[in-house]
Write a structure and sequence with these properties.
Blueprint: H1 8-26, E1 32-34, H2 41-44, H3 76-86, E2 93-95, H4 100-113, E3 129-134, H5 138-147, E4 150-157, E5 160-161, H6 163-172, E6 176-181, H7 195-202, E7 213-217, H8 234-240, E8 247-252, E9 264-268, H9 270-280, H10 289-298, H11 302-331, E10 337-339, E11 348-352, H12 357-366, E12 369-371, E13 388-391, H13 398-423
Parallel strand pairs: 1-12, 3-4, 3-6, 6-7, 7-8
Antiparallel strand pairs: 2-9, 4-5, 8-9, 10-11, 11-13
Keywords: Aminotransferase, Transferase
Pfam family, one: Asp_aminotransf
InterPro entries: AspAT_Ic, PyrdxlP-dep_Trfase, PyrdxlP-dep_Trfase_major, PyrdxlP-dep_Trfase_small
């Protein structure tokens, strides 16, 4: 049914039927969770051979005893793994601990307190700001919010951030000193940036504050579902535009091996890496090199890494198909929602009609299905349209996911009809 053309009597009858269905579901006392993009247990099990893989041999290929202190940059074999993931030279990669979010936080803090490559510290600006394509990743927003860096939104399109809006904001405000990007299978929309977007991003430093940096969070660089989706190389684009210092890239094995004990990577120009290492040297003697060696042994070549990711795709593919099947079946011929069809990553982004997201999430929770809070994909938790909902299909078993999606689509219908009756 198209809500816009339905008569009030039709809406009232439909609400009654939906309410009856909803009450029946609430009696089942469900407890299902679609809140965060956590790997499922069978995905984690793909890497269980990490346990014992060293077999008492703690020497890295270059002879480093990984049990001892030192090695701020990480062992060479781990840096080579990061270089394979990000498609950059090994010399421009630093391998850290388990979380790329930690590296991103440290990089933002370095820019804020000290500046990069001799540039002015961001804290000395009148009102430092970051650009945030929305909907986007709440943990990116949280870093800036904690440090008091203001967040300016720009809309996402089917090819990446709206670059006209990005360029206009930067020209008009030299206090914009950073931009968050999830360039491949973007969180949550699933969009991969096209070549024109990447090239225009690489040119931003020509019009921005000299201390401006793009934080290129390539979290899903190798998380393709069906076929390899090509992301243009931001390093090559930046080199071609003589703006190599403007980009810092991040990745990790958090959704490749064990989510809580992976290896994180940052790649940047020599000048940027020097700034990061200078500050890191005061806070750590070095990362967990033993764990880095475990990962290097698991993936000695890029071939093994690709084969491993194909196994992840085999587990995730039917779950994404389940979500999309429910959305297509229930909303394809209606005006009750819009969504992307991602070719990889960990999320499906769904937009309700304006004003309905909070109610959908409330109804779902009362029926036993937890979703990410409304507004989480926008800075400060404020979605101006109250419409975006991030669905995370990866964690629950397929049968539970199917049940959760049945509840979700019912809640979307009920919330939409009630909203329409309020306006009728």
């Amino acid at each position: 049914m198209r809500i816009e053309t339905a008569q009030r009597e039709q809406l009232q009858q439909w609400e009654k039927e939906l309410e009856q269905q909803y009450q029946r579901i609430c009696q089942h006392n469900l407890s299902l969770d679609l809140t965060r993009g956590k790997p499922a247990a069978d995905q984690l099990a793909l890497s269980d051979s990490l346990d014992g893989i060293l077999n008492g041999d703690y020497r890295a290929p270059d002879g480093t005893d990984t049990r001892n202190y030192g090695g701020l940059e990480g062992i060479a074999a781990a840096r080579e793994l990061g270089a394979d993931i990000l498609q950059v030279p090994f010399e421009e990669v630093l391998a850290g601990g388990s979380s790329s979010l930690t590296l991103m936080y440290h990089a933002v803090l370095t820019g804020y307190l000290f500046g990069f490559a001799g540039n002015q510290p961001w804290k000395d600006l009148k009102a430092p700001k970051f650009l945030c394509p929305v909907p986007g990743y709440d943990r990116h927003f949280a870093i800036c919010e904690q440090l008091g860096i203001a967040l300016e939104t720009v809309p996402m399109t089917a090819t990446g951030p709206d670059m006209d809006a990005v360029e206009q904001k930067i020209r008009e405000d030299q206090d914009i000193i950073g931009m968050w990007c999830v360039p491949k299978f973007s969180n949550p929309t699933g969009v991969t940036y096209d070549a024109d977007t990447v090239d225009r991003l690489a040119q931003l430093a020509k019009i921005a504050n000299p201390g401006f940096r793009i934080f290129w969070d390539n979290a899903y660089a190798i998380h393709d579902l069906d076929h390899q989706v090509k992301l243009p190389n931001i390093r090559e684009a930046a080199l071609g535009n003589d703006t190599a210092d403007s980009v810092l890239q991040f990745a990790s094995t958090s959704k490749v091996t064990h989510a809580g004990s992976g290896v994180a990577f940052v790649s940047a120009s020599p000048a940027n890496l020097a700034s990061l290492k200078k500050q890191m040297s005061a806070m750590t003697i070095g990362p967990d090199k033993v764990n880095q060696l475990r990962h290097a042994r698991l993936f000695p070549e890029l071939t093994q890494l690709k084969e491993h990711m194909q196994k992840h795709a085999e587990i995730l593919r039917p779950k994404f198909a389940c979500v999309l099947e429910h959305l297509e079946k229930n909303f394809a011929d209606t005006d009750m929602g819009e969504w992307e069809k991602p070719q990889g990553g960990y999320f499906v982004s769904f937009n309700t009609r304006p004003g309905c997201a909070q109610e959908v999430i409330r109804l779902s929770a009362e029926a036993g299905v937890k979703l990410t809070p409304a507004g989480a994909t926008f800075p400060y938790g404020k979605d101006p349209e109250n419409s975006n909902i991030r669905i995370a299909p990866s964690f629950p078993p397929l049968e539970e996911l199917d049940t959760a999606m049945s509840v979700f689509v019912l809640c979307v219908k009920l919330a939409t009809v009630r909203k329409a009756l309020e306006a009728a």
